[in-house]
Amino acid sequence: MRTEAAKRVELVFSLFDAHGNGVVDSDDFDLMTERVLEAVVASDDSAKEAIRAAFRRYWTTLATELDANGDGVITVEEFRPFVLDPQRFGPTIREFAQALAALGDPDGDGFIERPLFVALMRAIGFEEENIHALFDAFGPDAGDRITVATWATGIEDFYAPDLAGIPGDRLVVARAV
After folding, report:
1. E strand or H helix that includes residue 146
2. What are phi and psi of 111, to 5 degrees?
């Protein structure tokens, strides 16, 4: 695993630990889902249900794959080797990426405007300065928009263990886990 990917894993774990108690559980995913949904009042019900389903699948996949002792929590040690395994986690990431990116396009024009992108990424827990750096790295058009496909691909790339120098690396900052 590349150093950049390892840093992304640590960041993702810290974000998933929405309650900040050092482990990830279903309550963390419920909290993150609610935060994201609060940021997208203009999105339609089908887009909101898609992100709910994607967050549920995300948790279910983690719990199924990692919670061998059945205690209902995932530690960072359990999380590290799994989350960047495309064979085990790729379809879950793809569903999440598509649902989140679509959620950022409530008018269905195929574009995500910066303000909603920032709101969604802040709801997940990313640092605002890094969110803007990521958006800029995606190469917004003159209307300060990126395509839904660009964001979905960027999310999938973020979880790729062999990629470095990707736009998503701009999200990585030193965080304690």
Report:
1. strand 145-147
2. -125, 150
35: phi then psi, degrees, rounded to nearest 5: -60, -45
The phi and psi torsions of 22 (rounded to 5 degrees) equal 90, -5
70 CB-contact burial (10 Å; exposed 0-12 / middle 13-18 / buried 19+): exposed
Tally Cβ neighbours within 10 Å of residue 98.
19
Q: How many CB atoms lie within 10 A of CB 72?
A: 11
pLDDT tens-digit series, residues 49-104: 999 999 999 999 889 988 878 899 999 888 877 666 777 788 888 999 999 999 99
Q: What is the pTM of this model?
A: 0.88
Query: Cα separation of 99 and 123, whole Å?
Result: 15
